[in-house]
Each structure stands twice: as structure tokens, then as C-alpha cells.
Design brief:
Belongs to the glycosyltransferase 2 family. This protein has 9 helices and 9 strands. It starts with a strand and ends in a 7-residue tail after the last helix. It is α/β, with parallel strands linked by helices and 261 residues long. It has a single domain, classed as Alpha-Beta Complex (Spore Coat Polysaccharide Biosynthesis Protein SpsA, Chain A).
């Protein structure tokens, strides 16, 4: 039995899904994998179901009808993970932009006997800019988006939009998941911001992000607009919200010093 669950949302990932699943299960640290598939018409779910015969009790799938958004997929997965007793819950993309080998480093950052963080973020920007195969325009958009988030929210996370993360279960038990409002990449910002506001320790672990080589990116201008305007809405809403578990008094103190593992 593993104490660690990797949640992978999918929509039309038939080129990547088998390879990413096999890679995670090849790691020295045992992980379980939960696929949240949003009705992929390309047969992604069928590939996962076939693999379940090989990885019985380790690979799971939750199928949803229609493309319901990244944020709702992860919220669905978080609730499933909590219901099934996992101690460490991970977010990871299916397309190998996140290196599965780094799962071990993220988990290490959250172990009480090691980094003792509450949330570990696989960060592209904590040590320079570590992005491979992205066009310069997208690199600049992502980098300056994180600067914009830091300016508005006053948190110090260098990679605010990162989607490669490890949560200790206490974080997801504390955050009212049904009140997380964003569904696109703003969801990633909101989860970090909310964890920090509740007084949890968030650290950044440097990674190298490699753009997908197979399949199609799900980024859109609608997702970007949600993130841009949503950050302001999120900040204003936080003024009227009671973060009962917050343990530090000022926003400038809420983010722990960056650590690497």
C-alpha cells in the first residue's frame, strides 16, 4: 500500500498516457495513480482501463462526461484521495512536461523527517528560467504572469502558475475545496494563495519543465483571461474571508523561505 497518490487529469492524451503511467510505476518510491478523464474521445480512458489489469490496486480512473476544466478535475481527485486515506497527494500533467522522477523530490520536501513542508511546488523559476522547448513568447508570458501574481497577492512564490505539486493531506482537509472558484490555470494560483493564507508552509523545488512533444496543448486565451482578472478578484475576496487556521499575522510572513531538496 502506498501513502502517495499522483492525480493526472486527461483529455485526449492517448499518445502519452501509457508511457506516463508506466514511468510513474517504475520509480523506486511506490506511488498510486488516479486518472481523471473528461470523456476523451480519443480513447484515453480505454487505454487506462487496459492498464488497470496490469496495475490492479495501484492504478485508478474516474471518468467524467465532458470537458469540465482542470480545477474541477483536481478537486474531484483531491476528494477521492482524502476518502481513500492518502497522506501525500500530487498534481502532475500527462504529457511529460513534468518529469515523473521529480515526484520523489517533491515528496521528500514534504516528509516530516526531511523538508517538512506542507506544499511542495515544482518550480520553473526558483533558480533562473528552466523551461525547454517553449517559444520565447510563452516563456515571457508565464514568467511575467508569476511576477504579476506576486505583485497583486504579495506572496513570494516564484512560479505561481506551476501545476506540479505535492500536498500533505492536512492542507486539502483544511482548504474548503468546494469554495475554490477557478477552473483553469488560475486554479493553480488560487490553491497556493489559499494554502499560504491558512498558514501552511509552501516551498519551491527547482525542476526543469519540458514542453510536450506529443498531443495538443490545452492552453487558451480564455484560460489566460481567467488567471489575469481572477487574481484581482481572489485578492479582494480574501479581505472578507476568515482563514481560521492561519498561524501568522501578516501576508509578508506567510510564505516560508524557498528551499530546495
Amino acid at each position: 500500500m502506498s501513502d502517495s497518490l499522483v492525480i493526472i487529469p486527461t483529455y485526449n492524451e492517448k499518445e502519452n498516457i501509457e508511457k506516463i503511467v508506466r514511468k510513474v510505476f517504475s520509480l523506486a518510491q511506490p506511488f498510486h495513480v488516479l486518472i481523471i478523464d473528461d470523456g476523451s474521445p480519443d480513447g484515453t480512458a480505454d487505454i487506462v482501463k487496459a492498464l488497470q489489469q496490469e496495475y490492479d490496486g495501484h492504478l485508478f480512473i474516474e471518468e467524467r462526461s465532458g470537458k469540465l476544466g482542470l480545477g474541477t478535475a483536481y478537486i474531484h481527485g483531491f476528494k477521492w484521495a482524502l476518502d481513500h486515506g492518502y497522506a501525500y497527494i500530487f498534481e502532475m500533467d500527462a504529457d511529460f512536461s513534468h518529469n515523473p522522477d521529480d515526484l520523489i523530490r517533491l515528496r521528500h520536501a514534504c516528509l516530516p523527517t526531511a523538508g517538512n513542508a506542507d506544499v511542495a511546488v515544482g518550480s520553473r523559476y526558483v533558480k533562473g528560467v528552466n523551461v525547454v522547448n517553449w517559444p520565447m513568447g510563452r516563456v515571457l508570458m508565464s514568467y511575467f504572469a508569476s511576477m504579476y501574481v506576486r505583485f497583486i497577492t504579495r506572496i513570494t512564490i516564484q512560479d505561481a502558475t506551476a501545476g506540479f505539486k505535492c500536498f500533505r493531506r492536512e492542507v486539502l482537509e483544511t482548504i474548503p475545496l468546494d469554495k475554490i472558484r477557478f477552473v483553469g490555470y488560475a486554479f493553480q494560483i488560487e490553491m497556493k494563495f489559499t494554502a499560504i493564507k491558512y498558514g501552511f508552509t509552501v516551498v519551491e523545488v527547482p525542476i526543469i519543465f519540458t514542453d510536450r512533444t506529443e498531443g495538443v496543448s490545452k492552453m487558451s486565451t480564455r484560460i489566460f483571461r481567467e488567471a489575469f482578472f481572477g487574481v484581482i478578484q481572489m485578492k479582494i475576496s480574501s479581505w472578507f474571508r476568515n482563514y481560521r487556521r492561519a498561524i501568522k499575522s501578516s501576508e509578508s510572513q506567510l510564505t516560508a523561505p524557498q528551499r530546495s531538496t
